[in-house]
Design goal:
The chain has 164 residues and is an alpha+beta fold. It folds into two domains: 30 residues, no CATH class; 90 residues, Arc Repressor Mutant, subunit A (Orthogonal Bundle). It has five helices and seven strands, in the order ββααβββαααββ. It binds zinc ion. The site of zinc ion (ZN) has 8 residues, from loops.
Amino acid sequence: MVVFINLEFTLYSILPNKHFLFSYQLPKHLSTLSNQILSIKQEQLDLAHKLKELHNEDYRPDNLPTYQLGQLKKGILCPTCFSLSHTTTRQNYLCTACGHKKTITTEIERSTKELKLLFPDNLMTTNQIYDWCGKNYSKERIRIILKKNYQSHLSRKMTYYSKK
Ligand SMILES: [Zn+2]
């Protein structure tokens, strides 16, 4: 079967096909699978182990366009409509374009992951995330979020963060 896991992927004009599985069909398919008593062959186990072994969490395509941090607009982008326009309350972020609402903490965490994805080699610091999020949120708040999610390191009078 070909499994399309991207939630936003749609293939139009296709008749129901038992060889294709779309993201919306996955929960039912997985529940059906787990209800079946299957005998797993050694060959299948070996394949599963091999796939797990080959999984590369740091994969980066080699055909990305070149970009630099200074060229990019700063601020938290709405994950739904990619607008930079938003308002905030003490705890929440609200996109003024589409109404997407999440906690500010969630949005800072997401933006931090996006920055790390775009610049995997940069040292992640509070100041860098502060700038990346459009200087809209206090450095203290950002420091607390980074400390909660990442391992902190002290180097040349600078604290930077990496994966725990
Ligand atoms: Zn939005």
